[in-house]
Amino acid sequence: MSGDDRGVATAWTASIVAALICTAAFVFWLGAAVTSRHRAEAAADLAALAAASRAADGPGAACERARQVTVRMSVTLLTCRWERGDALVEVRSEPSGRWVAIGQAEARARAGPVDRPP
Fold first, then answer.
1. pTM of the model
2. How many CB atoms lie within 10 A of CB 18?
């Protein structure tokens, strides 16, 4: 009778370890995605503000300043355009490291010239 359940503890332990590994992988993936999204949003906000601060220099100079900000923040500037005096910026955050399929995010931001009242 004692031979019927031999090895059950090993099977349960292996199942629990597999479940913990899957949970840890999911938490890691979720954390990478959230971090990438936050980085993209912050870069878009800063790039739009940088472009708006250079609005008096013209759209070309303003968008160049936005591009410089995105380069420093390690994101890609997708678009920089002007609409009714506001800078509209769109960026993409590319994942880094070996988890390339995880963490790509895009964000948009809008900012107006500094000297214009809200």
1. 0.75
2. 10
